[in-house]
Amino acid sequence: MSDAFVARSLDEIRFWSRIMKEHSLFLKLGFRCEDTQLINEANHFYSLFESIEHRANAFTVGTDPNVIRRFNEEVHTAVSYIWVFKRKVLGLILRCQLPGANNFPLLVDHVSREANYFRNRLTELNLGRLEPLPDAIIDENVFFLRIMADHAKFISHLLDPSERKLVEQANNFSQEFDQLLFQAKDLESMRPQSQTAPLLDQFLDQNRVSVKSLRDFKRTARELIEACRIKSIIHPLLADHVFREAEHFLFIIDMFENSLTGKPVQAINQFG
Ligand SMILES: [Fe+2]
Ligand SMILES: [Fe+2]
């Protein structure tokens, strides 16, 4: 059990600390050159999460769980600080105090939601209190479907408007994921009655199909951007970043699917 705790903690921290590090870079690139204080803060968070990432990579599954517990707490504090920073930036943008800066409000809100998600994961890990499977399936999908819908919107808005075909494809994904998100919300409001194994299984299957096709679209976009074959203001690292988040969501969907259909899991027994 301790080994599982250490492995899960390290997986989460390795994935999300790199994401937090990259958010710091993206925010920095969107500030105006005179916003030196904000740029310095972003640089500080970049180094902070880079060092957390290195430390997480140096630990192994054999590391003492107590060391990992303290590490989780430390990372939790760092994530709380970057969340505050992101919300402060959002406030400045929405009060029109950064005219001409290039971070969309929705993007800043989005990266703060990801920080909040990471922080909650760390809390859950340290408390050893996981949500029952049927609740986790709905909540995680509601969270990630919105993240995916946002990504499609960012891609559409950061592509050059002359890339008409790609903009149209990105807009179609945006609509598709908005719809999936509403479906997930409907399932959410119908719970607990909606939490039957067949409905949850179908929900996962349907989401997987769309996430796979969005993931493939992001992979293509990443390749085209890296090869400088399309016109956009998308940083190649941002293209890779949103691709990795789609892969992460697919991994979570598969994990849920295995728990639902594989060997009976304690939490789902009552729904089976
Ligand atoms: Fe992100
Ligand atoms: Fe994201």
UniProtKB/TrEMBL annotation:
Pfam families membership: DUF2935
Classification via InterPro entries: CotB-like
Name of the molecule in the record: DUF2935 domain-containing protein
